[in-house]
Amino acid sequence: MLVIQQLVNGLMLGGVYVMVAVAFTLIIGMLNFLNFTIPALFMFAAVLMYATMTGTLPFGNDLILLIFGTDYRWIAGIIVALVTIALASLVIERFTYRYMKAKYGDATEHALPLVSSLGFLIIFEHFVVSTWGSDPLTATSPFGQGTYSIGTIIFSIPQIVSLTLSLIVVVLLSVMVKATKLGRALRAIAERPDTAILMGVDVGRIVPVVYVITGLLCAISGVLFTINYSTVDAYVGDTVATVAIAGMVLGGLGNVWGAIIGGLFIGMLEVMSIYIVGADFAKVPIWGLLLVILVFKPTGLFGHTLIGKGKF
Amino acid sequence: MSGYLESQLIILCLSIIYAYGIFLPAASGQLNLGAAGFITLGAYASAWFNASTGAELPIWLSVFLAMLFTGGIAFLISFPILRTRGVYMVLATFAFAEVVAGIVINVEELGAAAGMPVDGHLDVTVIVPVTIFVILFCFYFMSTRLGVALRSIHDDENVATLFGVNVRAAKVAAFTVGAMLMSLGGSLYGHHYNYIEAQTFNVLLSIYILLYVLMGGTQTAWGPLIGAVFFITVPEAIRGVAESAGIGWLAEGRFMLFGAFIVLLMVFRPEGVMTRTLQDRMSGAILRRKQTSIDDAAVRS
Amino acid sequence: MTKNVLEISGMHKSFGGLKVIDDVSFNVSHGSRTALIGPNGAGKTTVFNLLTGVYAIDSGVITVDGEDITHVLPKDRVTAGMSRSFQNIRLMPHLSTVENVILGQHARARKLSSLMFPLGLLPKNDWRLSAEEALDNAGIGTYPGEIVANLPYGVQKRIEVVRALVSQPKLLLLDEPAAGLNEVETNQLQELLEQVSDQGVTILVVEHDMQFVRNLCDHIVVLNFGRKIFEGTPETVHQDPAVLEAYLGTDDEVSEAPHAS
Predict the structure, then answer these.
(1) Window C:95-114, CB contacts with B under 8 Å
(2) How far apart are CA A287 and CA B268, in angstroms?
(3) Cα distance between residue B41 and residue B20, in whole Å
(4) What distance lies between CA C23 and its chain's CA centroid?
(5) What angle do CA A160, A18, A186 make, to 5 degrees?
(6) Is C261 exposed, middle or buried (0-12, 13-18, 19+ CB in 10 A)?
(7) CA distance to partner chain A, nearest, from residue C255 (Å)
(8) Chain C nearest-CA residue for B167
(9) pLDDT tens, A67-112?
(10) At what angle do helices A256-277 and A283-296 cross, to 10 degrees?
(11) Does the interface predicted TM-score (ipTM) exceed 0.90?
(12) How far apart, in whole angstroms, are the C-alpha atoms of residue A98 and residue C38?
């Protein structure tokens, strides 16, 4: 039964990370690069949530206290996190993707957005460390630690809510991509960026939208993380990145449902590995699996085309 | 030399060696985000060779054997890894480094999570000359026909093949030699600080080294040197200046400037600081162009 | 030394369901200057790609100087004696002019000692000097150290030819070497190629510039829709009805058809 409990825990863990995996896969699928700012945005949202709830924002704490009162600061937290991340995403897009000058198309010039994203990762991480320090930050969850049991298996209610919310968001996103004009434009850009422009897709306006959508996915995920786990620090992005990237690779780069299933699976794999071989060794089965997939079946479980034709 | 300056110099030297290890494959278009893996292998292998012979083995021999060992592993995994391309290669090399870290941290004989003490001390009088040797070696390497071949592969792999370049062999060579350099750096680290633990060589290290190389520029052998020097010395300099001027926040936030600089560099100069054109301009090669001839005039007409 | 430096027999190639080369056979004799012409889309560049191994041939035999190279790897075809230039310039943009030419020498320099010689550090070495000399001979000696990306189109085109030449091929494949060149440049290119031909190199050139072809070449092969429709001399090509139909169609349009001057 303990194994099942661990599996359940893994599923719950995966649930929080699923949206980040989807964010990674959207950017890779549409814009052809690995966006390392994504885990930073996740972390930043989680920290902003903490800071709003504990009144430790750089400014505006009194105003928030005034409007929301101590008990409802978590609502303010959600607003602060989402709005900040959305704005940050727009700024980031302005400074990265716009400057992709594919002049010669050689092997490393397309590393540009990858490197820029690393630059932003460094900025965010150090901003958080210099503002809040590098120690763990704890905020009391507004929802307590309510649990629900089936037999001997314990489900944490906040985690179930997170998983459900994650799935709903991603399903809505999937529907949007399939059924709306915006979605069609996104798919056009993903498949043939050059022809997309010719077909009247305003790439210059759509790409910022992609950045904002993926940013919001990270933000929602970060907020849920703080609610669920109460303790955050400047480095939670790293743990998420592992599971999210791994989930994305497993599911197939560019494939949204693949990222969901992959993310959940990797969440379970991580928890099971920690349980069986200990936290430190857990890396080996996860990344070993990934290495094998990347070499022998890079399209993953559900992907069909290789991304970027070798570019970033 | 003061203790502080000396320790900074050591850090700089090691970073330069690591950077050249990533530079060689990067010059041919292979982005390796797994530096930490090879550095770890070098550090632990050298320590182990030394320890297993009861510290009887001369240090240079342990270091050399570690290079062979790491080179061997790099050679073996280069075949599957060089089958991947672009973002897949970045992820595959990253995965490799994680697997290495995960394995090492669980081997009791290597100290597991507690780390491992290393016998035999190497100080700055050894490390600096070795670093200089590595720099000279890489300049030599890139000036050879193999270097031209690597840079051709970076620009246009298919055409390079049509002129007889064995692309697979060249990439494997660059990857393996690069890994051996990183191993050297790792071994030097171990024998200098006389203590290693797997957590030291982490993802952030891999990321930073790749950043030094990409920002210094992958077109010439100056790139990794410039990248490492700039990004090790400037943050320290900022910290020194900020602390004495009392601007505490700047001292703390200097890495944010580093991040901002990365972003701006990619906006204005994505090929990195030192490009082939700039190198030529600086060495006056273009100034030494022969007199305009009738030929030129005809071309312009 | 056999009579023909190149023999193509029964060459077939399809991409998906589309047949792009259909039973093409022709020979190129030693020392000749042959032009491969045809309307756009006829398959001329595809033939070059099949000869150099960029594409794998579906069926047929390719022989270079008596040696069957049909299944030889692309990287080894240059040692068999074939070297080429490209329709769209494919120089290495981040390498200098002389470095691009040095790449052309690669096939002759595969020994480890040549491979690891520090060309860049000792500028007066034989390889580099011979590369610079080759550039000089082609009239572009003024730009040895300059990065090719910054050079004018006409110069880049000629560097491509020099790069192909320095591998000392038996057969030089040139894909539209005169495209985009002005009259002076075209004449210089012609002089260079005549010189090269006099030294015993066989030339197979794809071209649209019929004046250039007439001045330089002694033999013409015409392709249309992947099939060979004519093989003969420059004097007779414009009279052949199949050729006229290929270029002019059934209407009396003016096109780039080969015509008597």
Answers:
(1) 95-96, 99, 102-104, 106-107, 109-110, 114
(2) 35
(3) 17
(4) 21
(5) 130
(6) exposed
(7) 30
(8) C75
(9) 877 777 788 888 989 999 999 999 998 887 665 544 444 556 557 7
(10) 140
(11) no
(12) 42
Range list of β-strands (E), chain C: 4-15, 18-29, 33-37, 59-64, 67-68, 82-84, 171-175, 202-206, 219-224, 227-232
- The encoded tokens of residue A309 equal 């034709």
Axis-axis angle for helices B203-216, B254-268 (nearest 10)? 40
**Both tokens of residue A173?**
């996103």
Q: Residue A227 CA to chain centroid, in angstroms? A: 16
Burial class (CB in 10 A: 0-12, 13-18, 19+), A230: middle
Give C94's contacts in chain A (Cβ within 8 Å).
Answer: 104, 106
pLDDT at site B290: 45
Q: What's the pTM?
A: 0.88
Residues 6+ apart with CB under 8 A from B2: none
Q: B-C interface: how many C-beta pairs under 8 angstroms?
A: 126
Q: Which amino acid is at B187?
A: S
| Domains of chain B: total | 1
pLDDT single digits (tens) A2-23: 778 888 778 877 777 888 999 9
Q: Taking Cα atoms as reference points, which of C175, C181, C233 lies closest to residue C204?
A: C175
Class of domain A2-141+152-310: mainly alpha
In a domain, B27, yes or no: yes
> Per residue, what are the HEC states of C115-170?
HCCCCCCCCCCHHHHHHHHHHHHCCCCCCCCCEHHHCCHHHHHHHHHHHHHCCCCC
Using the structure block, give the residue that is written with the tokens 């995920």. Answer: A221
Closest CA in chain C for residue B271: C94
CA distance C96 to B215: 21
Q: Give the count of beta carbons closer than 10 Å to the beta carbon of residue A112.
A: 23
Task: Pick C1-81+170-261's CATH classification: 3.40.980.10, 3.40.50.2300, 3.30.470.20, 3.40.50.300.
Answer: 3.40.50.300
* Domain extents in chain A: 2-141+152-310
Q: Which domain holds residue B133?
A: 3-206
Summary count for chain C: helices (H), strands (E): 10, 10
| Comma-separated ranges of CATH 3.40.50.300 domains in chain C | 1-81+170-261
